[in-house]
Design brief:
Length: 346
């Protein structure tokens, strides 16, 4: 894609996180921290708690509601200002589901079966017995983005394939209807922590839905839990090397160095410069201290915000109204392009 392809669209950022569990350090470093940076750069930013995506796998209704509020609190505690960014939950803007239907009719089934997230989430299970929503998940994600004509989407590395598909869907729509209506969105996958790995297995992504709580740091973990999880994190017996290249076959060690770098806002090379020759006996306490110093103010603020769920709901409602005001005209134009009669008086 060239910049010229999007020249007629004004810069606008959209991204989403599923409220399918408590947020992790991976969500924070790979997504949330960068969402705040983009907001502070002064670009128009729209952030969405994608509850419709969350229910593609079973969610207990009361827990889903609580997790959505907790995720909203995490966004605000991390620095998202709901007056400068738009912050809302997806199901309050019905245009997401409506555009997703149109895009379901543009995207091909084969594209969906090729998605590695679908393959991972059905691995070891009978894929035929997963929800139809899980298969169509990427098409709803494309709708989230295209509904706002978003030009840039900050995400972690694991979402790269979904964003390529979003571009394919936008291009096919534009081609089929002979329009230049949807932008070809740019993925923003940047920084030292685009793929934070599990603390128990350096080859697996840190995930909020991993059955092992020891595999991840939750944004709600207290200082003791954070320190203990880092102390117990799987590592090897070697001291830290001088260069990143020497960490190539040491995924657990590389992961901890990357986490340190992302938390400190430094390059991983700078971290190695400081700790080369030291073992994990020295590195882990330094990492734990840094993680606690960064996360403690966020979890404290989250607690304070979650004590007033009505205020969180009010904030999400306001965000939804502002999102709806952008989304409705784009949905209406889409329906018009597709050939739907739009004659209601209201
Ligand atoms: P699940 O594991 O339950 O599917 P998740 O923890 O991957 O969920 P998502 O809601 O799917 O969370 O992801 C939200 C954002 O956080 C996305 O931009 C995703 O790329 C990013 N992200 C998630 N996990 C990581 C990670 N381990 N490292 C870096 N970024 C991550
Ligand atoms: N699939 C994403 C969540 C998501 C998203 C989006 C991210 C849903 N819609 C739109 C960016 C833009 C994930 O992180 N699992």
């Amino acid at each position: 894609m060239t910049d010229a392809a999007n020249a007629s669209f004004k810069p606008r950022i959209f991204s989403g996180i599923q409220p399918s569990g408590g947020l992790t350090l991976g969500n924070y470093l790979g997504a949330l921290k960068r969402f705040v940076e983009k907001q502070d750069e002064g670009i128009e930013t729209i952030y969405c708690l994608v509850d419709l995506h969350a229910i593609t796998v079973w969610q207990d209704p009361e827990r889903l509601r609580a997790q959505t509020r907790e995720a909203a609190a995490a966004f605000i505690a991390a620095g998202i200002d709901p007056t400068r960014s738009i912050l809302f939950n997806q199901s309050q803007v019905s245009a997401h589901a409506e555009l997703a239907w149109i895009l379901n009719c543009v995207a091909r089934i084969g594209w969906m079966y090729r998605m590695t997230q679908f393959k991972d989430k059905t691995a070891g299970k009978n894929a035929e017995n997963s929800s139809l929503g899980l298969l169509a998940y990427p098409s709803l994600m494309a709708a989230d983005i295209l509904l706002y004509h978003a030009t840039m989407v900050p995400v972690g590395e694991d979402q790269k394939q979904h964003l390529e598909l979003t571009r394919d869907i936008a291009a096919k729509f534009n081609h089929d209807y002979k329009v230049d209506f949807f932008p070809i969105t740019e993925p923003l996958i940047e920084g030292a922590a685009t793929r934070v790995m599990s603390l128990r297995d350096g080859t697996k992504k840190m995930s909020k839905s991993d059955p092992s709580d020891a595999s991840r740091i939750n944004l709600t973990d207290d200082a003791d839990a954070i320190a203990q999880k880092i102390r117990k994190a799987r590592t090897d017996a070697e001291p830290l090397p001088e260069t990143l290249a020497e960490l190539k076959d040491r995924p657990e060690a590389r992961n901890l160095v990357n986490i340190y770098a992302a938390l400190a806002g430094e390059a991983p090379e700078a971290v190695l410069e400081r700790f080369a020759g030291h073992g994990f006996g020295a590195f882990k306490p330094a990492l734990a201290e840094l993680a606690v110093a960064t996360l403690a103010p966020i979890s404290g603020e989250m607690k304070r915000l979650m004590a007033d769920p009505a205020e969180i709901d009010r904030t999400l409602g306001e965000g939804a109204e502002r999102a709806d005001a952008i989304a409705q005209p784009i949905l209406a134009q889409t329906l018009d392009i597709v050939g739907m009669i739009r004659s209601r008086a209201d």
